[in-house]
Design brief:
mainly alpha
Length: 217
């Protein structure tokens, strides 16, 4: 599995066997969080592989997303490196699933409420890598919402307050702010009600203030 995922230039031609993916799920199920987070790293890479995320793999990704959410919800019990690695890699898994194949994308959409709740819990994280992962989830979720208009309403109204908090916080780095601004622009183009909701939060006035310390881009 690791060799296949490392050869990203061959994604169009390579296949992933069920038994390879099952190892990841087994690790997430049986290992402690301190030992299981490498499995999240493999899962977030597999979530971008076309064969690994085909329609036929929906049930697999449904299970993996649930396992990652369980780890994310037990954040208070995490210690040591796992306290950073579990939320960071869970969020990266969710982000990649939003832009992956139909199997992973449908699974992550099914659990979008819980995923956005997990994301919201880490918006004010003191760790810059977790904050960047938060920004990436929101970025990819907004693109998914824009492409799937039936999801626009509920997801957008969960995402907008998070974007507002991030743009108001001044604690996010340049790359994260860039992703959040692109996310906001993408989301408000999804529908007029979403644009109106963004205006009600006075987000237009916060964009330049949030962007100005980070250069021309």
């Amino acid at each position: 599995l690791m060799e296949t995922l490392a050869a990203s230039n061959r994604y169009h031609a390579s296949k992933v066997q069920d038994k390879e993916l099952d190892v990841v799920s087994h690790m997430l199920t049986t290992f402690s969080p301190a030992e299981a987070f490498p499995a999240l790293d493999l899962a977030r890479l597999a979530a971008l592989h076309p064969d690994a995320t085909s329609n036929a793999r929906f049930a697999y990704w449904d299970n993996v997303i649930q396992q990652a959410l369980t780890l994310c919800k037990n954040q208070a019990a995490l210690e040591g490196p796992a306290a950073v690695a579990i939320p960071m890699l869970s969020l990266r898994l969710f982000a990649n699933a939003f832009k992956g194949g139909p199997g992973s994308a449908q699974a992550v959409a099914k659990h979008s409420d819980d995923i956005l709740a997990c994301t919201e819990a880490h918006v004010k994280s003191s760790n810059k890598n977790i904050r960047l992962s938060v920004a990436t989830v929101l970025h990819n979720a907004c693109f998914y919402v824009h492409s799937n208009t039936q999801t626009t309403g509920s997801a957008a109204h969960r995402i907008l307050p998070m974007l507002n908090d991030i743009l108001s916080s001044k604690s996010y780095g340049s790359e994260a702010v860039m992703r959040v601004l692109v996310a906001l622009g993408t989301l408000v183009m999804a529908s007029e009600p979403v644009k109106d909701a963004a205006k009600s939060l006075f987000l237009a006035s916060k964009v330049e203030l949030a962007a100005s310390p980070h250069g021309a881009n």
